[in-house]
Design a protein that fits this description.
The protein has 581 residues and is α+β, with helices and mostly antiparallel strands. 39% of the residues lie in helices and 20% in strands. The protein starts with 9 loop residues before the first helix and ends with a helix.
Length: 581
């Protein structure tokens, strides 16, 4: 298999359904919505608390149990509110899967407001980009609510929405359900032109190409083999093996396991070691890290695009202000010309268009011709020069202030760009989004203080705590709240990056100082450079200018050391953080 994402198929769903069946009936305590595309049913089965996770987003669509707690969106969708009304407090009787399709039906029994019993079906269609969820009346088959209504404009064959009867997805044309396979059908599939795996996939519904290849590998047959390359005895053994595997699937017997590139669930026959992780554990381990990485990458790209646009607009403004400053650089010359005209007041006559006088301000001396407005009096021409001087001087002052602020903004944006590129976790990017005004911080519960930023906390080889800010909000917290005045503060010199603090009131050991400097270089734009200059000083010598942007500081009494970021040193320090947490 290629190193791309392995998608959730009908066989994996069958393994999860078998796992759920082993728990028996369950009570649905709560319906949570971690995101717009996710649901989580908190179950109580046989004295055990379970979390049934549903993802309905494109290539991530799947269903399995999870162990980690999941959050809740601040404002749940209307469909989620319907599920809470109809499912919470009800009993999950069973989970059904038609054939090996990527469709599952959760059959739920409960009572309405009048105490009358009812049956509801939560139908989950985990079909990639067409993934959807429906709440269906179990007796009438009418859709009570759905995540994404399907209109006639979207599909002329199958319309789905509240009030309409639920119509299951059509079965693949020309295929036999795998669980109904017999020896003749398997033999016919193996006899088709092409490879054995392609023949199975073309013949049977509910069998993905990857599952077919994994089945053949479990049976000791090369997936790319053709029937012509197999001896008659091998063909007979292969037919028997496929039928035995189908029988194990019908019996709900699987062997979930991780593979180098993904997972597999086929039961491989006699000799397979019993036990091992369940299907949900294998799927959670596979998807959780990859989905977190995908979310991190997508959020990083969104923020990077926003920052690139802000940098583009700021560059345009800086160019405008630089032009204005260049234009205003001649302010003093207007004052000099006004002084020359005032000194030669006696030579000025009404109606003159220009006058040539000695230039006392030129280093080389000489004469200069000053243009006059013949409509103005001599005094008004002199005042016009001084007005131009005042306007140019004010423009120069304003352009200088704007350029100074703009260059500070550019430095700040550069620090944010660096933080976005280096952020290791989604929570760090969310803090940056809040800093940029692109997201709101979660409102604290009544009586609780707002959550403080969570910088990286590691322990040096000498046992000293080291704090690392991974964005500007964390930098502010590390430097001005978490650090004491006598602690050591480090930062890459002239390079956007992390504020690093060593919690040590005495002299920091040389080894700890180099480890902290390595972290400062690693969490900066100079991660891939060598001999990175890192300044360090006492925290008391680090100040924040009035009105400065988050993370922007000035420092004094600094010393400089040079380090080359070493991934091994960083990994060892990060392990101390992981062990501590």
């Amino acid at each position: 298999m290629a190193a791309s994402l392995q998608h959730f198929d009908g066989l994996a769903l069958a393994a999860v359904v078998a796992e759920l069946a082993a728990h028996g009936e369950a009570r649905i305590d709560k319906v949570a919505q971690p995101s717009a595309h996710e649901l989580c049913l908190q179950l109580r089965a046989g004295g055990t608390n379970l979390r049934l996770y549903v993802n309905l987003q494109d290539q991530w669509a799947r269903l399995h149990l999870v162990t980690r707690p999941l959050g809740n969106v601040p404002v749940p969708a209307g469909f989620t509110m319907q599920l809470r009304k109809h499912l919470e407090g009800s009993r999950l009787l069973r989970v059904e899967q038609p054939g090996l399709e990527r469709v599952v039906r959760l059959v739920v029994a409960g009572r309405d407001e009048l105490g009358d019993p009812y049956e509801r079906h939560l139908v989950l269609e985990l079909i990639g980009k067409y993934a959807n969820a429906f709440l269906v009346d179990g007796r009438q088959g009418t859709i009570l609510g759905c995540l994404r209504p399907v209109t006639e404009a979207m599909c002329q064959v199958r319309q789905l929405g509240p009030g309409l009867p639920y119509d299951p997805p059509p079965a693949p044309a020309g295929k036999v359900p795998l669980l109904e396979a017999d020896a003749a059908a398997v033999a016919a599939a193996l006899g088709a032109a092409g490879g054995v795996a392609e023949g199975l996939v073309a013949r049977f519904a509910g069998l993905s190409r990857l599952s077919a290849r994994q089945l053949l590998e479990a049976l000791g047959v090369a997936p790319d083999a053709t029937v012509a390359t197999l001896a008659p005895a091998a063909r007979e053994a292969l037919v028997a093996g496929v039928l035995a595997a189908c029988e194990q699937v019908r019996a709900g017997r699987f062997w979930p396991r991780s593979t180098p590139d993904g997972w597999a669930v086929w039961w491989a026959g006699p000799g397979v070691p019993p036990g091992g992780p369940g299907a949900s554990a294998v799927l959670e381990a596979y998807f959780s890290g990859r989905q977190a990485a995908a979310r991190l990458g997508e959020r990083r790209r969104v923020l990077a695009r926003e920052l690139a646009e802000r940098e583009r607009k700021l560059a345009e403004r800086l160019a405008t202000w630089e032009q204005a400053l260049a234009k205003a650089e001649g302010a003093d010359r207007h004052r000099e010309l006004g002084d020359l005209l005032a000194a030669h007041m006696h030579a000025l006559r009404p109606g003159l268009e220009a006058i040539e006088v000695d230039d006392w301000f030129a280093e080389a001396g000489g004469r200069v011709t000053i243009a006059l407005d013949p409509r103005l009096t001599p005094s008004e021409n002199i005042q016009r020069c001084f007005r131009r001087y005042q306007k140019a001087r004010n423009g120069r002052r304003a352009a200088t202030e704007l350029l100074t602020g703009g260059r500070e903004d550019a430095a700040y944006l550069a620090s944010v760009v660096s933080a976005v590129a280096l952020a290791p976790e989604l929570a760090d990017l969310e803090e940056i989004a809040q800093e940029l005004g692109l997201a709101r911080a979660p409102a604290p519960r009544r009586g609780q203080a707002p959550a403080a930023p969570e910088p990286l906390r590691v322990t040096s080889s000498d046992g000293l705590p080291i704090l690392v800010g991974k964005n500007n909000r964390q930098n502010e917290f590390v430097t001005f709240q978490a650090a004491h005045a006598g602690d050591w503060w480090l930062h890459t010199q002239g390079i956007p990056g992390a504020h690093v603090v060593i919690r040590a009131q005495d002299e920091a050991p040389t080894r700890t100082l180099h480890e902290a400097a390595t972290l400062a270089a690693w969490f900066s734009q100079a991660r891939d450079s060598s001999r990175v200059p890192v300044v360090y000083t006492r925290r008391r010598h680090v100040k924040k200018a009035r009105g400065a942007r988050p993370g922007m500081v000035v420092y004094e009494q600094e010393r400089t050391l040079f380090v080359t970021p070493d991934p091994a040193v960083v990994a060892a320090l990060l392990q101390t953080q992981s062990a501590r947490s």
